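In response to the reviewer comment on reproducibility (Comment 2.3), we provide here a single inverse folding case reported in full, input and output, so that an independent group could reproduce the run without further information from us. The C-alpha cells appear first.
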C-alpha cells in the first residue's frame, strides 16, 4: 500500500496542477487554449459572415428602393402628361430665388404680386394639412406658393390628386423643377 501511496499522490498532484491539458497533449489532442482560440476564430468568422450578409441585404434594399423610385417617377410622368400639367424649370423663371429652397420639385398652386397674399395663402394651405413652399422673386414682391416640396417626382402625383379636390385648387397649377 505504501508502494502505491507516493506514486498515487504524485499522479493526483499532477492532475491537480496540469488538469486535462496534460492528458490531451499526451494523447495528441488540442489543449484548452487551442480550443478557445478555435472558438474565437469561429465566432469572428460567423460575425464577419453576418456583417457581409447585412451589407448585401442593404444593397438589395437600396436597389429595390431605387427601382420603386424610378417606377413611381415614370408613373407620375405619364399621369402629368395625360392631365396636361405644365412643368417649368427654374432657369426659365429669371429672378426666382431658389438658393434657400432645398428641394428639386414642388407643385405650385398660385402666384401673387403682393407678398402678404402669398403668405396668407401659405397659411391657408398649412391649415388644410399641406406643407406649403413659398418662393420669392429677387426683383419686386412677386411670390409663388406651392405644396409638397420634395426631391422625388413620384411624390407629386399623390399630392396633386389630393389637392385637386380642395376649394382653393386652380387648374393652372404647375410643377416647379429646380435646376
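Designed residues, in position order:
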Amino acid at each position: 500500500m505504501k508502494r502505491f501511496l507516493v506514486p498515487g499522490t504524485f499522479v493526483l498532484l499532477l492532475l491537480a496542477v496540469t488538469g486535462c491539458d496534460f492528458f490531451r497533449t499526451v494523447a495528441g489532442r488540442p489543449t484548452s487554449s487551442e480550443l478557445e482560440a478555435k472558438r474565437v476564430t469561429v465566432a469572428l468568422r460567423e460575425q464577419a459572415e453576418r456583417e457581409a450578409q447585412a451589407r448585401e441585404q442593404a444593397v438589395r434594399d437600396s436597389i429595390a428602393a431605387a427601382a420603386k423610385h424610378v417606377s413611381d417617377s415614370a408613373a407620375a410622368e405619364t399621369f402629368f402628361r395625360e392631365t396636361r400639367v405644365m412643368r417649368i424649370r427654374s432657369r426659365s423663371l429669371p429672378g426666382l430665388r431658389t438658393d434657400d429652397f432645398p428641394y428639386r420639385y414642388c407643385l405650385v398652386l398660385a402666384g401673387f404680386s403682393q407678398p402678404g397674399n402669398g403668405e396668407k395663402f401659405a397659411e391657408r394651405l398649412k391649415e388644410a394639412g399641406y406643407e406649403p413652399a413659398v418662393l420669392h422673386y429677387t426683383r419686386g414682391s412677386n411670390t409663388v406658393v406651392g405644396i409638397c416640396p420634395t426631391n422625388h417626382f413620384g411624390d407629386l402625383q399623390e399630392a396633386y390628386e389630393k389637392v385637386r379636390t380642395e376649394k382653393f385648387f386652380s387648374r393652372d397649377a404647375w410643377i416647379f423643377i429646380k435646376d
